[in-house]
Design a protein that fits this description.
Layout lengths: L4 H52 L14 H86 L6 H32 L7 E4 H11 L1 H6 L2 E7 L5 E4 L1 H17 L5 E11 L2 E8 L29 H11 L3 E7 L3 E9 L5
Parallel strand pairs: 2-4
Antiparallel strand pairs: 1-3, 4-5, 5-7, 6-7
Helix pairs in contact: 1-2, 2-3, 3-7, 4-6, 6-7
Amino acid sequence: MIPLTETEKNIAEIEKLQYSGGLLLLVVLTIFCGMFLWRMVNIPVQRLTEGTIAVMKGNLDHSIDVQTNDEIGFLTKSFNHMTRTLKQTQEELQLLNQTLEERVQKKTGELQRAQANLIQVEKMVSLGTLAATVAHELNNPLEGILTFAKLIRKRMNNPDLSEENKIEIISELTMIADETARCGNIVKNLLLFSRKKVGEFKENDIRSLVEQSTKLIEHHLKIHNIILQQSIDDRLSFVVCDAEQLLQSLLALEINAVEAMPNEGKLLIDVKKTGENEFTIALSDTGIGVRDEDLPHIFEPFFTTKKEGKGTGLGLAVVYGIIERHNGSITVASQVNKGTTFTITLPITREV
């Protein structure tokens, strides 16, 4: 019989040492693996993250040190290559952009010079056209004046003037006066057309202006059997305008309307408020109207649908200029043998 107490005690101590050694070995292996993973995985990934953030902020000079040849090292090398490629591409784009800006500036300068030359050419063409038109418009009455002046001088050399000859001379002198007045009107309208400034702007009663204009043509209305109908919005009283210029515009349009109705007709003048700071003046007649092909040219200088010698073609151009300088607009609508309507739109108060 051999006692086992001592043996069992030794076995228990050995098992205890084995468990303790195994636990210690597990702790050591865990620490080693953690340090290995931290050094080989976590630190490179953190550097990649920092590099990505730096590149995202625009720092393409950022580079990551490569310390391994594994997959993460390959990824780091790829990242560095990507940043270098991006930086090179950015520099090329900046250079290209600078070159494009220089080219654009150069082309812009060339276009500006070409535009200036074109404007100058257009001015010269317009001046030439204006000179030719003015020469033509003035030549007709001046030729008549010269012809009749020569005839009168020839007849005045005759000592025995009959009463009939005196009447003819008076008629020819009247013709000379009329043609001279027409030359004066052409020059006057040219001066009005070329004016860039209007007179004094102040508050004027629009009702009084309209009534004054119709009173000035009252005689013409009676002669041509024309019925006048006018309507003025009660909400309108004083408007800021150049009374003399606006009155001239109204008279020009009303006289045109009268001439478009040689026998009889109806002239309608409608003044109404159309906005908070806007009103319109519509002048309608029941006259001969304007052809569709003539409407686009109706406000052009020297364009007229009247017979030769009956108009200078500057009246509506002057009206257009006056309304434009009042910061307004004018439109026309017409039908042949039915009538024409001119609509003037003007501000009630003038902005400084």
